Amino acid sequence: MPLVSEPWLGQMGWSVTRVGVAGRAEAMRFDVITLFPAQFAALTEEGVVARALQRRIARIHLRTPRDYTSDAHRTVDDRPYGGGPGMLMRYEPLRAAIEAAKAEAAKDGVRSRVAYLSPQGQPIDQAQIERISTAPGWVLVAGRYEGIDERLIEDCIDEEWSIGDYVLSGGELAAMVVMDAVIRLLPGALGHADSARQDSHSSGLLDCPHYTRPETIGGHSVPKVLLSGDHQAIERWRLQQALGRTWQRRPELLQARGMSEVEQRLLDDYLREAARSKPGVGSEQSE
Ligand code: 9WO
């Protein structure tokens, strides 16, 4: 059974469908409204998300507002009132597509909320990703052109999300970013049980440095502690590196998170060592 059905072959648009259960009552469900369903192959064809779909841990349904137009040209865009360059997405096909997605999710017992991806949205950090991952399903609206009619936001959109302070050419990549970050958290999506919990950011810290073979590359050796076999010392070193790098690169994250006394001492030692070995380098915070 193909994971992706071609939009022009189905009546209701695209469907990338995995049905079933894996550690939760139902597979988590995403319904995406997009003019460019083919872009989602980046997510559905290979990698962690593709495997999670195959394992029926999550499902992604794609549908295009073009299938909900009533004119011969299947028009999805229109000119903005007040003039100016560019076009907006028409209210009616978008609303019809959103409602069809919600109705289909409801038939599967999933009450989905609707999120619009836009630079005006609430910032999505790892804590938000974790919250999003606890809902049974979401309808994600990926806009194009200069955006959507404001009344659609008032009438149909429950949440507006931003993945960062930059403008893309459409909401599709942002929707993929959110789905990727969410789906890899779902139980069974990653091979090893604990790897999502150990992620950078789930701890509120940046990740520590990593090393693999060979032991020496161009005079750079692997930190000795990692070869010691002393697991407690290794864990302490990794936490210390994470604290040090977070202090240097993203002090506002450390500020928001706070530190235990043990962590404060590990950071102090890290900064003392950094000042000793590379005076004027690395011991300064950025900015
Ligand atoms: C395009 C444009 C062109 C000329 C003048 C002003 C303009 N504004 C935009 C614009 O914001 N287009 C958006 C494209 C409309 C909504 C979907 N698009 C989008 C979503 N771009 N960037 C995002 C996005 C989503 C989530 N997080 C970060 C960015």
What is the structure about, briefly put?
This protein has 287 residues and is an alpha/beta fold.
Describe the protein in words.
- With 287 residues, the protein is of the alpha/beta class.
- The chain is built from 9 helices and 11 strands.
- The strands form 4 sheets. The chain has a 5-stranded parallel β-sheet with strand order 4-3-8-7-9, sandwiched between helices. Strands 1-2 form a two-stranded antiparallel sheet.
- The longest helix is centred in the last third of the chain and has 19 residues, at 231-249.
- The chain starts with a strand and ends in a 10-residue tail after the last helix.
- Residues 1-24 have low confidence and may be disordered.
- The site of ligand 9WO has 15 residues, from strand 7.
The number of distinct helices, counting runs of at least 4 residues, comes to 9
Structure classification: alpha/beta
Q: Specify the biggest β-sheet.
A: 5 strands, parallel
Helix proportion of residues, in percent?
A: 25-40%
Strand order of the largest sheet: 4-3-8-7-9
CATH topology name of the largest domain: Alpha/beta knot
According to DSSP, the number of beta strands is 11
Q: What CATH architecture label of the largest domain applies?
A: 3-Layer(aba) Sandwich
What are the low-pLDDT stretches, counting only 5+ consecutive residues below 50?
1-24
What small molecules does this complex bind?
Answer: ligand 9WO
- Tell me the domain tally: 2
